[in-house]
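Lecture notes, unit on binding sites. The following record was shown on slide 14. It pairs a sequence with succinic acid.
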Amino acid sequence: MSDTAQSASMGMDARPLTPVVGAEILGVDLGNVDDAQFAFIRQAFDRHAGLLFRGQDLSPEQLVAFSRRFGDLDHAPIMENGQTAVPGLPEVYLVSNIKGPDGKEIGSLGAGEAVWHTDMSYLAAPPDISMLHAIEVPPAGGDTWLCGMNAAYNALPEELKRRVKGLRIKHDGTYNSGGYVRQGVTPTDDPRESPGTYHPVVIAHPNTGQPLLYLGRRRMAHIEGLDLAESEALLDELWSYATREENAYRHHWRIGDVLMWDNRATMHRRDPFDAASRRLMRRTQVKGALKPAAYAG
Ligand code: SIN
């Protein structure tokens, strides 16, 4: 049976959200996914790098159980409120501007913009996958964007592809995407001095072998072996290909949406929203199994 016939017999479908990144998966309840449905989701995820599931009524435990099918989960990092995790569920992180009874935000990232990034790429083996489940959404703003890093690589002029072959970028570990300094880090202004990890500029996807431009975060990045001015100019040039609108999917949230992305094959960002409105996402993260490997093509 072909994939299409098989998915039709399961009542599932994958509809691309853009020509280059993301697909909406229809016909599945993530609280109750059988092996055939999971195989369909897994294959669609490798093909589209980001998946959307609408109308999912999931407990935090069900979100964890679905996430775990992709691999071991990271425990949530310490949030800006000093908490380590949701009590009893260390794999669930809250992204929220909502304030608790003590007046502190119950989650991370507030209501501001989260700039383009891929998650925790300052680590040697960054997380493979991140997943958000929308519990409360603001009436306007707070949209999440994905951009496709295979399409970004393909868009580079051949001369630029040749120039970056073999180069590595330092992925800075000072700031998170909301601009907050990470716990325990003393910030410096010099990208060459900041904590972080060097990864190849172009990596190969471990499942598909596709070449991916792997940029991490723009702030405090540095290209190994280049002086600061050369490094900044080359980074600016590379970033200008990655984040073009034609390479991006913009997700406008509804309650019950689950959006998941591959941290090697995409970057993401979030629009700001009115701090007086409420936004609450439950988030999980699949551990990175491997160091990003250079694309050999
Ligand atoms: C994130 O960067 O993981 C959060 C994105 C969002 O809040 O939409």
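Take-home: The first helix runs from residue 3 to 10.
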